[in-house]
Specification:
Structural class: alpha/beta
CATH topology of the largest domain: Rossmann fold
Number of strands: 15
CATH architecture of the largest domain: 3-Layer(aba) Sandwich
Shape: elongated
Oligomer: single chain
Number of helices: 17
Largest sheet: 6 strands, mixed
Distance between the termini: 48 Å
Number of domains: 2
CATH class of the largest domain: Alpha Beta
Strand content: 15-25%
CATH superfamily of the largest domain: P-loop containing nucleotide triphosphate hydrolases
Radius of gyration: 25 Å
Helix content: 25-40%
Strand order of the largest sheet: 9-8-10-11-15-14
């Protein structure tokens, strides 16, 4: 039987080599180290013909160790081999090509936290003896490439789905989570042997020591990374990784998290949720996005939340008076943009612990000025909570032509770059699921406080 094709991808310094080594410990799998690094955009099944695959040439790779390829050839001869594969981090750039050129191939994408990736970039950039890593490729290059890899991942998912893609959360996998290994082998459709389990335990045994190492990042560098990373796509990728390990449908309940109601009906225009279930609570009228917002606020430690003074810029079922010490609603009229800017500009400074702005910002013409006005009205450590329609549907925010005389019309469609739109602000993204319908919704928190960012990111 002919072997299948397997590719390992991910942002550079994200742990693709560690996955390559682990899989090569399985006698049924052969994964080369950057065998087609230089021709990754043109690689085809013909390149995996045995006489070519096991005989690397400088035009295709800079890893030409003949002893390694001889050992791999001997493994092939002792057969049988279930997968022939290659590891090149930058395969993330050409995943659509791989899917089309290698129908049914398996792609493993490694997702690692940005800070250790950036630290590894710094280490290599500062090494004068590392001829393959220029000095300029430091933490700034890391966040740009990390963001780009996530964009390419999401483009691939939108086009090809996830049937032949497995997203590995590096920190969870290499901490020794056996559930991740089991899920990976289900994806590969290979029995998980005792020897593979033993090798996995050996490969992950030093995780406490490795994860405790100091990062080569200053506080200023960490701050830069926190503000520049694409949290929207990170949250979406984390959700994909979780689904790869636990692919069952999201568990749902039949009681509204806001009012406790148990009857649900069609939403506006007779619509159902994306999961096919009735969207609107018949008792309080909440929709899936409202219940997600309510749950997100509920994740804040109760003692802190109940001491908060909160302003909501529109009436929203997910924000209720009984959640906070003080709660005000300032219902803005999207049909009067001049009034919106005046009202926001006149908000008293240093007055609120948090401001809620749900499904409204896309209807405000000058959204950047609106955010700055809200930030001025916050107390130290305060935050803005925002939701906008489906920001992962497109990668880049699209401005729309103004429509005078059409109150409440949109001025833009926000994309996955939402967090990059507002300068010098930390954006914390959380992809939450409505507990009733299982529908996902992105919730954003904007803050100027690093301490608040860490608190919200840990929820």
């Amino acid at each position: 039987m002919n072997p299948g094709f397997l590719f390992i991808a991910g942002c550079e310094r994200s742990g693709t080599t560690a996955m390559e080594r682990l899989l090569n410990g399985d006698d049924r799998i052969i994964v080369t180290h950057e065998r087609f690094k230089f021709i990754r955009r043109e690689v085809t099944p013909a390149h995996f013909a045995l006489d070519r695959f096991f005989n690397p040439i400088p035009e295709e790779t800079n890893d030409l160790n003949p002893e390694v390829y001889e050992q791999l050839r001997q493994r092939w001869d002792s057969g049988p081999i279930a997968y022939l594969g290659d590891k090149v981090p930058l395969y993330y750039q050409v995943m659509p090509h791989l899917a089309e050129a290698f129908p049914g191939c398996r792609i493993i994408y490694i997702l690692r936290d940005l800070n250790p990736v950036a630290s590894s970039y710094n280490v290599r950039a500062s090494n004068p003896d590392d001829a393959n890593w220029p000095e300029h490729r430091d933490y700034r290059d890391a966040v740009a490439n990390w963001n780009e890899s996530l964009k390419r991942l999401w483009n691939f998912v939108e086009r090809f789905g996830t049937e032949h893609l497995f997203v590995v959360k590096y920190e969870r996998f290499f901490a020794g989570d056996a559930a991740c290994l089991e899920a990976l082998y289900r994806f590969l459709e290979l029995p998980l042997t005792a020897e593979v389990r033993r090798r996995f335990r050996a490969a992950t045994a030093d995780w406490p020591e490795r994860s405790g190492r100091a990062l080569q990042l200053s506080d200023g560098m960490k701050d830069y990374l926190a503000k520049k990373k694409n949290g929207t796509l990170e949250a979406a990728a984390l959700s994909l990784a979780e689904q790869c390990v636990a692919p069952q449908a999201a568990e749902t309940v039949r009681n509204c998290g806001i009012c406790g109601g148990s009857e649900f009906e069609e939403g506006p225009g007779g619509r159902h949720s994306a999961t096919g279930l009735p969207a609107r609570c018949a008792h309080c009228g909440s929709l899936e996005r409202d219940r997600v917002v309510y749950a997100a606020w509920g994740a804040i430690p109760e003692a802190r939340r109940r001491a908060m003074s909160v302003l909501s810029l529109n009436r929203h079922p997910g924000l209720r008076e009984d959640q906070f010490a003080n709660f005000q609603v300032l219902p803005l009229d999207p049909g009067d943009q001049a009034a919106i800017q005046q009202i926001l500009a006149e908000l008293p400074a240093n007055s609120f612990d948090a401001i809620g702005c749900n499904y409204l910002l896309q209807r405000i013409e000058n959204d950047r000025a609106a955010v700055q006005a809200m930030l001025r009205a916050l107390k130290p450590g305060g935050f803005i909570q925002v939701t906008v329609p489906n920001p992962v549907k497109v990668l880049a925010t699209k401005e729309l032509a103004a429509k005078p005389g059409q109150p409440g019309s949109r001025y833009r469609v926000y994309g996955a770059d939402f967090g990059e739109r507002f300068d010098d602000v930390y954006t914390v993204c959380a992809l939450e699921h409505d507990p009733v319908t299982g529908t996902p919704e992105m919730v954003y928190f904007l803050t100027e406080s690093d301490e608040t960012r860490k608190m919200l990111g840990g929820l």
